[in-house]
Design a protein that fits this description.
374 residues; D-Maltodextrin-Binding Protein, domain 2; globular; binds calcium ion
Length: 374
């Protein structure tokens, strides 16, 4: 009994010594292990971010893309990250998204780069430029042709990390109250048309205006503007433009395949653990394609309704008007590249890619679609 009584404290002492030695070893290694511990903490940390957009809340296509990204990120991260999406004007104006993300007042935004042409002229190439790349082509340029690297370089000084996040496919030229039979009909025409498309219209004698989508119907109905472009039948039907204008013109030479952007404050992005960055990039890539699929699946049904039910008059722009717009576009793009170092760099890459892809499409997709549609 006595010996047992003596042995027990001794055993405890040995256990305590072993524990203390283990602690010493662990503390001694703490320099190497701190990163691992930080990563463990980051794996558990909750992120509740806010995302502002240039679109009406839950707007079909455009407005649903950020909602779907938010849903996917929450699911894929098992609830570690939640993103609250705000429609235009709820927290910042439609065209205040870039500044909100740049300043860090909001971690994320969803919009189109051509809205920032006054601040970042080269951003327009990452949305759409007249007679430029189609949706498939801009995806290939951005993801596989060097576009994304340039985009991130151009936005870096604004402390923004851009991610491709949606595409509407080829748009319509838009809604007009009078027929366009020649270039003379463009003179003095006050039209809502953003980006370089607007500059082309101006050069052709028109008056371009930039207004957020939510203001277009009233502007058109009250005569503040004579014409407007927006997206295509699927979206245009929801805004009811057919109640304010009779003629619906195509093709959308000014926006052949506009890519939308998820904007992320660079400091916020860098604060994320790697797995959440991968989740956001992957969710955005899925939605980038999903939005295009949605538009392609819905556009013709909406167009049929506009024409058959609402009596909209569908019109193709005359060839000579399209050709004039094309010549003006090329000149404007060349001039922009002379004045702006960033545009010169981006345009060079964009132009070369477009040439390559157009050459191949001539004997692949273009030739096939022509044969199929005969
Ligand atoms: Ca548009």
């Amino acid at each position: 009994m006595v010996s047992y009584g003596l042995r027990k404290p001794r055993k405890n002492l040995m256990r305590n010594l072993t524990y203390i030695l283990t602690l010493i070893v662990l503390v001694g290694c703490s320099g190497e292990q701190s990163t691992g511990l930080d990563e463990d903490v980051l794996k558990e940390k909750k992120y509740n971010w806010r995302l502002v957009t240039s679109w009406p809340k839950n707007y079909p296509g455009l407005g649903m893309a950020p909602e779907r990204i938010a849903d996917l990120v929450e699911e894929m991260s098992n609830g570690q990250m939640t993103i609250t999406v705000y429609g235009a004007e709820e927290q910042v104006p439609a065209f205040g998204v870039f500044d909100a993300v740049s300043s860090g007042s909001h971690q994320m935004g969803h919009s189109g780069g051509y809205f920032w042409k006054g601040k970042v002229p080269a951003a327009q190439f990452f949305t759409s430029v007249p007679f430029g790349l189609t949706a498939d082509e801009i995806n290939a340029w951005v993801y596989r042709g060097g576009g994304l690297e340039l985009w991130r370089e151009i936005y870096q000084p604004f402390n923004i990390y851009p991610i491709p996040a949606g595409n509407t496919g080829t748009q319509m030229f838009g809604w007009f109250n009078k027929e366009i039979n020649s270039l003379a009909d463009i003179k003095g025409l006050k039209m809502r048309i953003p980006g370089i498309g607007g500059e082309v219209l101006k050069e052709a004698g028109g008056i371009p205006v930039t207004l957020p989508g939510g203001e277009l119907f009233t502007a058109l109905q009250t005569g503040v503007i004579d014409a407007t472009e927006w997206v295509g039948p699927y979206n245009d039907l929801t805004f009811g433009f057919h109640q304010a204008a009779k003629y619906y013109y195509y093709p959308g030479w000014h926006e052949p395949g506009p890519m939308l952007e998820l904007l992320i404050n660079l400091d916020a992005w860098n604060s994320l653990p790697k797995h959440l960055q991968v989740i956001i990039e992957t969710a955005s890539k899925a939605v980038n394609q999903d939005m295009l699929d949605e538009y392609l699946a819905r556009n013709n049904q909406a167009l049929t309704e506009l024409v058959d039910v609402h009596g909209v008059e569908l019109r193709r722009l005359p060839d000579d008007v399209i050709e004039e717009f094309r010549l003006i576009s090329n000149k404007i793009l060349d001039d922009l590249a002379k004045d702006d170092e960033n545009i010169a760099k981006v345009y060079e890459s964009y132009k070369n890619f477009k040439k390559d892809v157009s050459e191949y499409h001539k004997i692949s997709e273009d030739a096939f679609v022509e044969a199929r549609n005969k």
